[in-house]
Backbone:
């Protein structure tokens, strides 16, 4: 890493901003950036696709993290080094509670740490919790937009196929036992990045929250993933994040 350019995200302090929206999918970056004023792509390196734009006259970065904890931690660490202190993850998830329907918005106030990366930051006993102000802004945004939404705990895992094909894994019994335990505990949905995001943000004294589009519900559909039970339009989650960011920008300006 040079003094001027972050090694992975390929950005420097001149590209910095206070706010960032971080989807996992590089292909979702342009769609999110289209809700900003004067959006333009500024770099694409590895899984890190970045656009910049403006929201209520504040510069905002939209940077993809790729899938999973390791690349998410790198993204957050390097964005923080160029000035970002407020992060909103916009992702997809699979519903776990029977009332979390495909197309619903899910807002995470905390995450179950089934990832490996966050263990490099804090012991497992330390909770992965979203920033309250960011979470409240997301909740207020979803409510004002009148979107069906849920607020609560999500499961953040490292392996996509251990969830969808647990019977093929050597630790099948453990996976099924924990899955059922999370459901009994009220876990809303499953995804792959938020526990890492929340832990890194907490350790680095940053603000972070997560909002998801529910693609499908494994408990409703059974173990298979029929296409008719899936929905892939992430617009509601994106619009929730944009409105939440407007709320945060307004609050931050009043504080300053």
Residues:
């Amino acid at each position: 890493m040079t003094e001027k350019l972050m090694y992975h995200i390929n950005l420097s302090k001149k590209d910095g901003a206070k706010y960032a929206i971080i989807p996992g999918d590089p292909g979702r970056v342009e769609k999110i950036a289209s809700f900003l004023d004067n959006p333009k792509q500024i770099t694409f390196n590895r899984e890190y696709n970045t656009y910049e734009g403006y929201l209520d006259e504040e510069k905002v970065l939209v940077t993809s993290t790729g899938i999973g904890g390791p690349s998410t931690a790198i993204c957050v660490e390097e964005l923080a080094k160029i000035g970002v202190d407020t992060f909103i993850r916009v992702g997809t998830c699979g519903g776990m509670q029977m009332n979390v329907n495909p197309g619903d918005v899910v807002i995470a106030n905390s995450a179950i740490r089934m990832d490996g990366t966050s263990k490099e930051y804090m012991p497992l006993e330390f909770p992965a919790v979203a920033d309250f102000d960011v979470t409240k802004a997301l909740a207020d945004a979803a409510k004002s937009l009148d979107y069906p939404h849920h607020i609560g705990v999500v499961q953040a895992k490292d392996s996509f196929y251990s969830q969808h094909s647990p019977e093929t894994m050597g630790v099948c019994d453990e996976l099924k036992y924990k899955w059922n335990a999370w459901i009994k505990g009220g876990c809303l949905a499953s995804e792959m990045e938020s526990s890492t995001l929340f832990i890194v943000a907490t350790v680095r004294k940053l603000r972070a929250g997560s909002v998801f589009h529910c693609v499908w519900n494994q408990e409703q559909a059974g173990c298979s993933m029929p296409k008719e039970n899936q929905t892939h339009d992430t617009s509601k989650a994106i619009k929730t994040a944009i409105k939440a960011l407007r709320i945060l920008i307004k609050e931050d300006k009043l504080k300053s």
